Amino acid sequence: MASKRKNKQLFIDKQALATLSFAKEGLLAPVDKLMNKKEAQEVDRSGYYKGIPFPFPFIIAPFGKKNANVLINATQGEELDFVVNGEIKGHIKVNEVFEIDKRRRIEQIFGTYDPSNPETALFLKRLGDYAVSGDYELDFNDIKEIKKTINEAKKRVKPKNVTSVMMSARPFHRAHERLIRITLEKTDLLVIFLLKPYTEDLISYDLRFKTLQYFVDNYLPKSRVVIVPFENTYIFAGYNNAVLDSICAHNLGCDKLVLGQNHSGIGMYYDKNEMKSLLTKYESLKINVEIITEFVYCNACKTLVSKNTCPHGQHRHLKYDSESLMELLKVGILPPAVLMRKDISAILLSEMFPNRFENIQKIYDNIFPTSGLLESHDEKDFYLELMTLHQTVSLT
Q1: This model's pTM is above 0.70
Q2: 325 in a structural domain
């Protein structure tokens, strides 16, 4: 997006650009613009914008001395360019510039002010002292593509109801499978929002998408499931993310949002023996939010169960803990098949540790039974056969 003239510039990152696009593309409706000082103060006081729940002011306060100098000297009606990684990606027509309370901004998003928290410390490094409001235009098509994908799926399926699930699938395990299957039983179309992070990770977004798509293609009626990336920007980092997830899902055409009990931002608690969450105070949200209890594998039941329906104690339960599974994958260990489907594990390890073995064909031929014919095998095949050996019980 080239400027017609030489404008002053505001330097922002892709997270800020994506966040601005959420409002511009209607995902945060009725919030469709940057709030001015009066609007921001009202949202901070009430938790509502135009009668609709919204947990904190929607503002942008870009960090840095250059940005601060541009904003301090900006005049009403002046056009400023948004610059991301050296490229002009939009512009804003200045309506108002106002100073913000950085401590209060942190409290609004994270629920508390704790600079020792890594996420808070990271956010402080990108938060400036001045916010700007006004009409803006962007060169960012990612969220447009999300809307297009969902609309195409709805045209294809013609669903009476659409349900959404938010997940990171880091890694994709059996409890995720159960959650998806239970949800799919009660809806015509399931939209899986796969959280797309802005930090490097051992399992890349593309690899997580690949494993999830593999499961959908091979084990579900794939015409009724669509996976779309969800830009997991800094506004979703805090304790209000379940509220924002609900708003976005509704504005993307979903009737229901299904969340796991351990989803951050739910804040489950008991009030007079009734289970409630932080979502309770936002009962006017225009979407049905269903909270699913935690799944475990019970050694007594011999199956995957809900903790609410299993009569056996925790000493009988295998937990689907993502961080623990990541620790196994990090050092190249195959997770037990009861925790992760073996073909999913094989896809992950073969891509996380490419060319790990000096001669994979020789190892394969020397360990596993073959047809006697010349066969070619890759590392994914090796992990699949290795898992089969792990499950052999005659000598254990």
Answers
A1: yes
A2: no
